[in-house]
Amino acid sequence: AVLIQILNVVAFCHLQGVVHRDLKPENFLYTSKEENSQLKVIDFGLSDFVRPDERLNDIVGSAYYVAPEVLHRSYTTEADVWSLGVIAYILLCGSRPFWARTESGIFRAVLKADPSFDEPPWP
């Protein structure tokens, strides 16, 4: 249910022409502690408006969640979709799909590696 809420929130942003560019678990908050609480996305500091025919080229976002398209400096809302995939991976197995000691190492891993679904932490 949480992933569906996350997808709905981000889809709403995209329908408004907004790409968030820094989606990560800590940027989603519930409005209360109630079980049926509404999920909100926060921290629009790196967000931007994007037209359907426009490509963005700034390298922004949190390293573990940055899409390859961002690193190639040509992206639109698909950058957020990549980040959602990373969030889903973390929610499903409890660890990040890419890891390195430095930001540049993380970027290299994002560009070159495919996350494994055959080794731990996957059953």
UniProtKB/TrEMBL annotation:
InterPro entries xref list: CDPK_Ser/Thr_kinases, Kinase-like_dom_sf, Prot_kinase_dom, Ser/Thr_kinase_AS
Keywords from the UniProt entry: ATP-binding, Kinase, Nucleotide-binding, Serine/threonine-protein kinase, Transferase
GO molecular function: ATP binding; protein serine/threonine kinase activity
Domain Protein kinase: 1-123
Transmembrane segments: none
Family: Belongs to the protein kinase superfamily. CAMK Ser/Thr protein kinase family. CaMK subfamily.
Protein name: Calcium-dependent protein kinase
Organism of derivation: Boechera holboellii
